[in-house]
Design goal:
Radius of gyration: 23 Å
Structural class: alpha+beta
Strand content: 35-45%
Shape: elongated
Largest sheet: 10 strands, mixed
Length: 306
C-alpha cells in the first residue's frame, strides 16, 4: 500500500469522487481520500491522500486556497455559473474598469457569504443541491469567509479575470455573483481553476494520465509526498530512545523526554515527533500548563503492516 499525498490536477468533467475512484484502479488500493471538492466544470489542484495519509485530509482541507476565475458580467443564473439556467441578463455598457476594481476590492477581508442553492451545504439534514433539483429554495444563513487577496488579472468587459486567495469554505461562484450584484449589473462565474491548495501548487500537479505513466515507468515514489513532508511547516522534535515506546503508543511526553529547538512554544502548537532513527511517529500538540506534548494524530506503523 502507498502512504502519502499525490498532487493531482483535476481536469474538467470529473468530480472529485471520480478522481478518487479512478486512482483506486490506477494504484490498486482502496484507502484513498481527497482534500476538498472541486465542481465538475472546475479544474486544478486536488491533493489526494493515500493510505495512512488519509489522516491528513482534515488538516489539508483547512488550508487557504488560490483560484483563477473568470467573472462574466451582465448574466445571472440559478447556479451562479454559466452552466445554470439564465435568470436575467443586464446591460453592462456603463461598467468601467475602475468601477470593477472598486467593487472587487470591497470583498477583501472577511465577509458574510450566503452558500448557493447548488452546493453540498446541508440544511435540516438535506444537501442544498438536492433541494434545488426539486425546485425548492430555502433560507440559508450567511457564513463568514475570508478573501485574503483579490487581484484583477485582466478586464475585457463583460469578462473579468481574477486571482482569488481565500479561506476554506469560500464559494468562488458566489463571490462572482456578489461582485456582479455590487456593480448593479449582475454576474456569474464562467471558469475556475484552483492553482494552490496549502503547500500544493499547480506547477507540481499531475493529471491522471501522467500518474498512469509514472506507474508504468515504476516511478510512483517520485510523485508521492511523504506524510511528514506535507507537515513540514510544524517544528520537528525528537523523543529520547527510552521514551520511544511510549511515543509509539500515543502517550503524553514531558518536555524533558524530547529534544526541541523551540523554547516554550505557544500553547496548543503542533510539532512533528520523530524517533532517534529519524522515523516520523506522530503529530503532537504542546500543553503549556502541564509542560507536556499530547498526541494529535498517530502515523507510526509496524513494519509488517501492509
Amino acid at each position: 500500500m502507498i502512504h502519502g499525498v499525490i498532487n493531482i490536477y483535476k481536469e474538467k468533467g470529473y468530480t472529485s469522487h471520480d478522481v478518487v475512484a479512478k486512482l483506486r484502479g490506477i494504484l490498486g488500493q482502496r484507502k484513498i481520500g481527497h482534500t476538498g471538492t472541486l465542481d465538475p466544470d472546475a479544474e486544478g489542484v486536488l491533493p489526494i491522500c493515500l493510505g495512512r495519509a488519509t489522516k491528513l485530509c482534515d488538516f489539508l482541507t483547512e488550508k487557504e486556497k488560490t483560484y483563477e476565475a473568470t467573472l462574466l458580467l451582465g448574466c445571472v443564473t440559478d447556479t451562479q455559473d454559466t452552466l445554470g439556467r439564465i435568470l436575467e441578463t443586464r446591460d453592462v455598457s456603463g461598467i468601467t474598469g475602475e468601477k470593477i476594481r472598486e467593487a472587487v476590492l470591497k470583498f477583501e477581508g472577511e465577509y458574510p457569504q450566503i452558500p448557493p442553492m447548488y452546493s453540498a451545504v446541508k440544511v435540516n439534514g438535506k444537501k442544498l443541491y438536492e433541494l434545488a433539483r426539486e425546485g425548492k429554495t430555502v433560507e440559508r444563513r450567511p457564513r463568514m469567509v475570508q478573501i485574503f487577496s483579490a487581484r484583477i488579472r485582466s478586464v475585457e468587459i463583460p469578462r473579468v479575470r481574477m486571482e482569488i486567495r481565500c479561506s476554506k469554505g469560500t464559494y468562488i461562484r458566489t463571490l462572482c455573483h456578489d461582485i456582479g450584484a455590487e456593480l448593479g449589473c449582475g454576474g456569474c462565474m464562467e471558469s475556475l481553476e484552483r492553482t494552490q491548495s496549502g503547500a500544493f501548487s499547480v506547477q507540481d500537479s499531475l493529471t491522471l494520465d501522467e500518474v498512469v505513466q509514472k506507474r508504468d515507468q515504476g516511478k510512483l515514489a517520485e510523485i508521492v509526498w511523504p506524510v511528514d513532508r506535507v507537515l513540514e511547516r510544524y517544528p520537528r522534535i525528537v523523543v529520547s530512545p527510552q521514551w520511544e515506546s511510549l511515543a509509539r503508543n500515543g502517550g503524553a511526553l514531558r518536555e524533558q523526554t524530547v529534544k526541541c529547538e523551540i523554547k516554550d512554544p505557544p500553547d496548543g502548537s503542533l510539532v512533528r515527533l520523530y524517533d532517534s532513527d529519524g522515523q516520523f511517529i506522530a503529530l503532537y500538540a504542546w500543553h503549556r500548563q502541564n509542560r507536556e506534548y499530547r498526541i494529535k494524530k498517530m502515523f507510526f506503523h509496524e513494519k509488517t503492516e501492509e
